[in-house]
Amino acid sequence: MTKNKKNDIYKQLADFVYETSIHSKTPRSGFWFLGSGTQSVAEHLFHTAMIAYTLTYLEPKADKQKVILMALLHDIGEGRVSDHNYVHQRYGKLAETEAVRDISLSVPFGGEILKLFEEEKERKTLEAKLVRDADQLEWIATLRGEEVKGNGKAKEWIFIASKRLKTEAGQKLGEVLMKNHPDSWFFDAKDAWFVDRKVKHQKWGVKGKK
């Protein structure tokens, strides 16, 4: 490999690093219609990847690394076309696929990005179905957070999102997410430690206890 060609590759990689940083500045537009809450595309991608990773525990036949990478990349085109909520999608042309194809031509590993993106959109493989469910579960968890803060619309939106879940693992996790309070992982009003810090607190997450 010549020095000039190597420099060109590093230029491509640097551009990719800067482009993916824009996701943290790109807002998810559904919150405008929900009336409360904010979230960036980057926040959504990270949380979706964590949920997708969680689902692979329930579906051990799935390729764990593939699922995580697919989840991180499933909305990568939104850095170029922005996030389109359901109202926007009904009336506007969503050029995300075209954007991802252009991204794939800009980096040496673009073929992998495009392949994973297209597989997720087709939703035929187990990995793609899990990522799709993780995407919806992330939305459900976010909406649940808004619901407990008093947003009445969020509950109806959660019900609609739950109907999109396809895998058994996704559906079962969704049921618990809709029931549990978002703070249940750390807060228990019966835990005396919250009143008196001198009391030994319960171990969070151990055998179902906070």
Keywords:
210 residues, mainly alpha, Hypothetical protein af1432, 11 helices
Here the CATH topology equals: Hypothetical protein af1432
| Overall structural domain count | 1
Low-confidence sequence ranges: none
SSE run? HHHHHHHHHHH
- Terminal CA distance reads 56 Å
| CATH architectural type | Orthogonal Bundle
CATH superfamily: Hypothetical protein af1432
- Total DSSP helices: 11
- Taken from the alpha-carbon principal axes, the silhouette is globular
Structural class: mainly alpha
What is the average per-residue confidence, as pLDDT, rounded to a whole number? 93
Percent of residues in helical segments?
Answer: 55-70%
Report on the structure:
With 210 residues, the protein is mainly alpha-helical. It has a single domain (3-179), classed as Hypothetical protein af1432 (Orthogonal Bundle). The chain is built from eleven helices and no strands. Helix 4 packs across helix 8 (110-122), helix 7 (96-104) runs antiparallel to helix 8 and helix 9 (126-148) runs antiparallel to helix 10 (152-162). The radius of gyration is 20 Å and the shape is globular. The termini are far apart.
